[in-house]
Design brief:
Blueprint (H helix, E strand, L loop, with lengths): L1 H18 L8 E8 L12 E6 L5 E8 H4 L10 H7 L6 H7 E2 L5 E8 L8 E12 L2 E11 L4 E4 L1 E5 L10 E9 L1
Parallel strand pairs: 3-4
Antiparallel strand pairs: 1-5, 1-10, 2-3, 2-6, 6-7, 7-9, 8-10
Length: about 180
Amino acid sequence: MTGKIRIIAIAALFLIACGKETPKKAGLLAVSFRINEAVGDVQPSYQTVVWLETEEGGYVKTLFISEYLSYGGYNDSTICPAWIKQADWEHAPETEYDARTQATPSTGEHSLIFDLGNEDIPPGPYIVCMQIHIIEDYNILYKGRVVIGGDDNETRAQSVYTPAPYEAAKNILTDVNFKFMK
């Protein structure tokens, strides 16, 4: 009897798998970065978000968001304000919350890999954005251009400090790199 159940289960899994649509092959986006310790008594929140924009600055999609920021922290306009202005996260469907939310990165080297074939991102040029909250209204935003769907390409992102560099934590986010791989 156990053998029959096993065969039926395998057949059911096979039929389910055959009926599913294969994801589009768009490639991978790798976001690598390093989070460093702040100097002195500063305790950064490290709230982090990664999203895509069009070259014209239009919002496309959030790819990664720290848990606190995802589940209500977006109401605090001092935390990752560039993303808050773009994303309208308050009206995002719950499936987006669950799919994008992860633990806040800690200090050290990180690499996030996004399968763009599963994200319905059409080929073309995009601006990858990554913002991290330091303290109070101090944030660091990195931006870089990648072309999705073509040959492998990468960019070392450029930083923008808002409202200005926070001296004790101006280097908490470094070595930010965005890479598309087919």
